[in-house]
């Protein structure tokens, strides 16, 4: 195991503990800032995610956005592949998909221009630590080669880390939304006020 792999494993373990505590204390309006951000991009094809474990819940903001344009959720086609995105609407029938993730019973695929990205930890410069499968990194790299694609991390404040062990293949976030704030990142990775 390389030092970077060990560092990422430790960073994930620490972040999962912080996220669990934040999730237990979270209120019902955790997605209020996310909904306000998404309102600026009404009608733009976007993808969110169905929360698992202790992830912050984007569903209220996604439901609001679905009234104005296409909203999708990720579908994992297989290991080491970019994600696909299937159109999602509130209350649509879902089935178990690959890797146990719920997906639409009859998926209608499209490419989003805005991706709400789940994460384990983030830093103040747009860095993101995911679960380690590289799905979002591969996907964002592919989408960004085709067109401008906005990556918005969504997390609890407590998931912030002072620094993260990052690799050149880790795709940066353009914006980070928490239950209390919004961080925008410029091309140098420095935070900017919304």
TrEMBL record:
- For bias type Basic and acidic residues, the affected ranges are 1-17
Enzyme class (EC, first level): ligase
Enumerate the InterPro entries for this protein: FTHF_cligase, FTHF_cligase-like_sf, NagB/RpiA_transferase-like
EC number of this enzyme: 6.3.3.2
- Say if the entry is tagged with keyword Cytoplasm: no
Enumerate the residues binding substrate: 50, 55
- Give the region (Disordered) as residue ranges: 1-22
Reactions catalysed, semicolon-separated, are: (6S)-5-formyl-5,6,7,8-tetrahydrofolate + ATP = (6R)-5,10-methenyltetrahydrofolate + ADP + phosphate
Name the UniProt key words of this record, in alphabetical order. ATP-binding, Ligase, Magnesium, Metal-binding, Nucleotide-binding
- Any one of the GO BP annotations: tetrahydrofolate interconversion
Q: Which domain of life is it from?
A: Bacteria
Binding positions for ATP per the UniProt entry: 8-12, 128-136
**Cofactors demanded by this protein:** Mg(2+)
Cite a single Pfam family from the UniProt record. Answer: 5-FTHF_cyc-lig
A GO MF label: metal ion binding
Report the NCBIfam families cross-referenced here. Answer: MTHFS_bact
Q: Which family does it belong to?
A: Belongs to the 5-formyltetrahydrofolate cyclo-ligase family.
What name does this protein carry? Answer: 5-formyltetrahydrofolate cyclo-ligase
Q: Which organism is it from?
A: Pontibaca salina
